[in-house]
Fold:
Amino acid sequence: MSVVRIRLLVSGFVQGVWYRESCRREAERAGLAGWASNLADGRVEVVLEGERRAVDEVAGWCRSGPPHARVTDVEVIDEAVTGERGFRVR
Structure:
């Protein structure tokens, strides 16, 4: 099993539409750790850490998000694994 960590910077209409909470549910369902946080510039930052297949699956979900979100761009940054535990909404 390959464990990876990525940071996603999600742009578009992604604040005030339950994006972070929906992301938490998707990440927990996939067994991932990390967090989702609103940024001051209107983007949402998502960190996902766990098994490669699950990270890829949730990262794919992040490209559309919950029903009322309108994602226009997702920047993906590979990071070193830190041993993150649990998933939080910040």
